[in-house]
Amino acid sequence: MAGHSKWANIKHRKAAVDKKRGKIWSKKAHAIIVAARLGGGDPNANNRLADAITDAKSVNMPANNIERAIKRGTGELAGADPEELFYEGYGTGGVAMIVEALTDNRKRTAPDIKHIFDKHGGNLGSTGSVMHSFDRKGIVVVEKTNAPSEEELFELVVEAGGEDLQSDEEGFTITTPATELEPVKKALKAKGIEWISAELEFIPQTIIEVDEETGRKIQKLIDSLEDNIDVQNVYTNHEPPESLIAEMNS
């Protein structure tokens, strides 16, 4: 839910985890495999793998599943390696969307993604049709109970290469250039500041406010995309009305 508090998005996603735990674990395994393939199987020397493991543990993925995924990535176990792909398209009302996927069979995934867009009144665009409207940024979410004062945190983040700090009732959202996410995480870790999430995301350059009807249609499209086992994340440039956000998080 672009433009809205990260906390609303996090709560909404966590509420859905128990309903589709098998798929969630498969998605996390894909992320671990790719991280291990790209940077090796040692999380102490591979930040992307360390984050993927932490993410998997947050949804109670068993340790043996995590270990198998690491070995798949390093080639110790046989199996097709998933590749990272991005699909671009539009939903109802011209809402721009980027779908981040990890797949071991692009001939399966592309038609599936297109079918989901078509079914919900959207359309899948060509490469580059949407990406130019988003910026790739590092986003770190920290609970206030795990952080110093806003002033101290801002100073720490800026010195480490961050560019923005937003505060709401529950926590802080730190924005960094894509290249500075790891230095900022390292600075936070050095101060004992833990985060809820820390990842690269696509942030829209402009936000489209939609009415409740359009918001519901877009959310159904997002939910259907996220139900697909190959889809890792969905990014949009829309802002749903507060009433709809409250309903989804109730």
Helical/strand content category: alpha+beta
Helix and strand run? HHHHEEHEEHEEHEEHEEH
What oligomerization state is this entry in?
single chain
Report the count of strand segments: 10
Helical fraction: 40-55%
Within CATH, the superfamily of one domain carries the name Integrase, N-terminal zinc-binding domain
Provide an overview of this structure.
Helix 2 (21-39) runs antiparallel to helix 3 (47-58), helix 2 runs parallel beside helix 4 and helix 6 crosses helix 7. The protein is of the alpha+beta class and 250 residues long. The radius of gyration is 18 Å and the shape is globular. The protein has nine helices and ten strands. The strands form three sheets. The protein has a four-stranded antiparallel beta sheet with strand order 3-1-2-9. It has a four-stranded antiparallel beta sheet with strand order 5-6-4-7, covered by helices on one side. The chain has a two-stranded parallel ribbon with strand order 8-10. Helix content is 45%, strand content 23%. The protein has a domain at 6-74: Orthogonal Bundle (Arc Repressor Mutant, subunit A). The longest helix has 19 residues, at 21-39.
Keywords:
250 residues, alpha+beta, Arc Repressor Mutant, subunit A, four-stranded antiparallel β-sheet, 9 helices, 23% strand
Fold blueprint:
Layout lengths: L5 H12 L3 H19 L7 H12 L4 H12 L8 E8 L5 E8 L2 H14 L3 E2 L9 E10 L6 H11 L3 E4 L3 E7 L3 H10 L6 E8 L3 E2 L2 H16 L3 E6 L1 E2 L2 H7 L2
Parallel strand pairs: 8-10
Antiparallel strand pairs: 1-2, 1-3, 2-9, 4-6, 4-7, 5-6
Helix pairs in contact: 2-3, 2-4, 6-7
